Amino acid sequence: MRIQSGGITFLLSAVIPSLTAALSFDCAHLNVDKYKYDLSPLGGVHELYHVNETESAVTNTTYVLNICKNLGSKAADRGDDGKCGQTKRICGFVNRHPTDGNGSKRFGFPIVGLDHMGHGSMEPELTRLAAIDPDTQGVRVRLAGGEFRGDEDEGKKKETAAVIDFVCDPNRSGLEGLVTKEDSADADVDEKNRRREENGDQTNQDRSLQFKSFGLNDDDSYVLKLDWRTRYACDSYQRGKMNSSSSWGFFTWMIIILFLCIAAYLILGSWLNYNRFGARGWDLLPHGDTLRDIPYIFQDWSRRVINSLQGSGSRGGYSAV
């Protein structure tokens, strides 16, 4: 059967983007300075709201993110509220209302992700927070791959990125105060959280994921900065998982090595007995006489132990004068 080149091209275009996305950033396997972090429990589509009021306009921005997978069409494309691209992991949706009531705008823009075909890289950069502040545990993750047109840029798009500080907090899972995709399916729940955020009722202490800033950085790119407090960023939490797995691995390897040594001893000894002495049957085994006597040796040893225990409990016999 001959496969047409068009079919091969289609298959490659479907498979390669998935492989590229998997290799660009894996939230379950972060290796930083010999420390390993697993942030996969924080996966899923989450939303974060921020309101910025100025003299000219009120801007309500909804940040939608999934650090482990692409957002997909449902979370990234919101119809009249704007489109971002389903290969993105972090998007912003802006709802801007001028104070004079004229020229309201709604649009979406990508912050982190791959291009529209799934190619490229999010350029992940990982840094332990202890390298920045010795008193802070956690990991800083910088991801790129988006673009944004600021008001002051006269229509010129600039690159965007996100810097998320995953800060160690042993008492938090990291999901406190967050709205997942399943929860936000109910419009009433989504609207309640939006109003709570706009009214300032949901304080930073109630929510593990916190908005810090979004603006133009020194490298002429727009950067979204977030703080995410979670136990999964603690060195001790990760070390405990690693130690338990490494200890189990040590005993497993010890048993395997012991088994291989015994097998090698029996095989080599049997081969030598066969070639040197022409041994057969039990005589093939090295120290065959000893092996045959093991049941009797164990029986005698058990009898001695029992007699010793019984003898130590009796009050008969001679005593020193």
From TrEMBL:
Family affiliation: Belongs to the ATG27 family.
Keywords on record: Autophagy, Cytoplasmic vesicle, Disulfide bond, Golgi apparatus, Membrane, Mitochondrion, Protein transport, Signal, Transmembrane, Transmembrane helix, Transport
Cellular component, GO, one term: phagophore assembly site membrane
Record protein name field: Autophagy-related protein 27
Parts of the chain that traverse the membrane: 248-268
Database matches in PROSITE patterns: MRH (PS51914)
SUPFAM superfamilies given in the database record: Mannose 6-phosphate receptor domain
MRH domain sequence ranges: 25-236
Chief location of this protein within or outside the cell: membrane
Biased composition (Basic and acidic residues): 182-199
Family matches, as InterPro entries: Autophagy-rel_prot_27, Man6P_isomerase_rcpt-bd_dom_sf, MRH_dom
Residue ranges, annotated region (Disordered): 182-208
Annotated localization: Cytoplasmic vesicle membrane; Golgi apparatus membrane; Mitochondrion membrane; Preautophagosomal structure membrane
Top-level taxon of origin: Eukaryota
GO-annotated biological processes: autophagy; protein transport
Membrane topology: Single-pass type I membrane protein; Single-pass membrane protein
Span of the signal peptide: 1-22
Transport as UniProt keyword: yes
